[in-house]
Design brief:
- By secondary structure, this protein is mainly alpha-helical.
- The protein contains four helices and four strands; from the N terminus they run αβααβαββ.
- 62% of the residues lie in helices and 9% in strands.
- The protein is flat and about 50 Å long.
- The termini are far apart.
Length: 112
């Protein structure tokens, strides 16, 4: 039992390390590339997003596209990490929200 818990803790520690390592480190002016932050968010999404349903898969594709759009549009912009995360949040929150549909009907997307 202890070996199993130790293995789980080691796996969790590896996941945390990989997740934190992907976050861009600010430069001497305390700024990061918005493109690097968007890429880190996209990598996290790609490695961790659930794809248990068609709706999950559609959401993952939409999020990845939104992050790529942000990186392509403002990727060269440098700002403090909290501001970069604010850009990511704003872009993600600007996406339309899918509304669950009754069984047997296609999912509908509702603009916010």
């Amino acid at each position: 039992m202890n070996e199993r818990k130790a293995a789980q803790a080691k796996t969790l520690a590896g996941w945390i390390d990989a997740t934190l390592t992907a976050i861009p480190i600010p430069d001497a002016d305390n700024r990061v590339s918005l493109g690097a932050v968007a890429a880190a968010a996209a990598a996290f999404l790609g490695a961790n997003a659930s794809r248990g349903s068609a709706l999950d898969a559609m959401a993952a594709v939409a999020l990845a596209a939104a992050l790529a759009d942000l990186a392509n549009t403002l990727g060269g912009h440098r700002c403090e990490l909290p501001a970069a995360l604010g850009f990511v949040r704003a872009r993600v929150e600007s996406l339309p929200s899918p509304r669950p549909s009754p069984p047997g009907r296609p999912a509908r997307v509702v603009a916010r």
